[in-house]
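ligand=2-acetamido-2-deoxy-beta-D-glucopyranose
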Amino acid sequence: MSIFLCIQVSVCENTRGNPSLWSKMKLVALMTLLPILSSASLPPPEGSYKILFLLPFTTRSHKILHIALATNLADRGHKITMLTNQAPSSKHPNIYEFTHGMEETDFDSLNVFKFLIQPGASFVPPAFIFEALGRNLYQLQEVKDIYNKRKEFDVIVIDCYMNDVVYPFVHEMPFIVLCGTGMEQMHSAVMGNVLNPAYTPSMQYMWNHPMSLIQRAVNIFGSIQFGFIYKHWSPVPVVQPEINKHFPDLPPILELEKNVSLSLINSHYSLGMTQPLLPSQIEVGAMHCRPGKPLPRDVAQWIEEAEHDVIYFSLGSVVRSEFMSENFRNIMIEAFTKMKQRVIWKFEKELEGLPDNVIIRKWLPQQDVLAHPKVKVFITHGGRLSSQEAIYHSKPVLAIPVFFDQPKVAAELQKAGFGIALNLKELTVPLVVDSLNEIINNPKYAKAIGKASLLLRDQKETPIDRAVWWTEYVIRHRGAPALRSPGADLSWIEYLCLDVLVVVHVGIFTLFWVSKKLLALACRVNKKKKTE
Ligand SMILES: *[C@@H]1O[C@H](CO)[C@@H](O)[C@H](O)[C@H]1NC(C)=O
């Protein structure tokens, strides 16, 4: 489209023959086109590819990332097949979604408030879910069909975390992993990049930087413990026997996993920690973020007619508000009655007795709401995607985390000065009201998050273009062996040079022992001579 408009401008220039006016207009036209050009900056693809996405165990929010990538690939003419536990969410003609429908992975009926745990702890789904997945997934006819046709695909994209059940698909195929939880120590190590525990906190900890001696010690064990449990307790040892029954001749999951071509990681140095990365580790943090689009008319009107700006409240897609405790709900409602701002709240059920300044909607286009200039605060559960959207759209946050990595994300948001994090268990009406007023009236929060937003947007190409380009790269080269780190082929003993250390120690000890013996011998000879 942009090319077409450029041509139009130059045609007009020729026919009208007023160069100065027309070149000015051309400049204006180009400037308005620039955003369009930059968001589709990739050269056209070499052909139409077939791409298989496998995410049989994922959350709605992780699926948002897969759909963002799939949609951008589909826009380029590629054909996408997606196997997932989530309901279909794309209407794109080039995307075919298959929902396997196993009830063990139905997060919609899952009440995560039951898993409400202390900040800092991590959430491990029960092992029976993985066992059921391993047992039943390959019995579904459609999954069998996709499996039998898997060699027809040009590349496979899988969800990095807890989707070990799909590894039979990637045998002798080029594949990419998408890490929705961000930089992940365990997976990074598989690729040959062990993140240094001296400054990389393990998923379950929230240490400040720099860590103390004790913290670094605990962090080393925490980092090892997580990978150890994953590989030696659950989910891998639970899934593996089930996979063996269906595919007795395949190499084990942990072997197949090592052949990964590259990983697309939902992180970015502007969003948190800078890490040394391999060329096969591509940071695509906030790739689902995009400029706001017009809102549904009723919502737009409600926001625009607000006399004193707007507060947006959403607990995301996994944490469903209908499972909120009555206490939590009442605190929030009462706090809203004390605010002069209007509140727009994503809540999946009807609610009686709401104050006049509050409306609820079952679903809202979150990014379009956040992009609206009248929205001043985002009350969030501190999910990773939501916090990225808050930064991208430059909206300060009041974070009320519920589970998993949310307490950690919330603490990071507060530490960065992007808002205030509250503990759900200590929530009171005055605390919510004071926090909201502080965030709205003290410009420091908006300023801090505005600065982060600029950093996040200031990239050579958009994260989504980067993700698309690398996906096609893996297709063009049938894998990415050139990017592979030699470190990935070493055992951990070799990687840490423990064998070298043992040899050096034994050498030093031998040298010491031999010299001691020689010295003793010399002394004895000496003494003998003297007594003679
Ligand atoms: C490893 O990946 C390459 C493509 O990236 C593929 O050709 C090869 O067969 C794979 N090996 C295994 C054991 O899957």
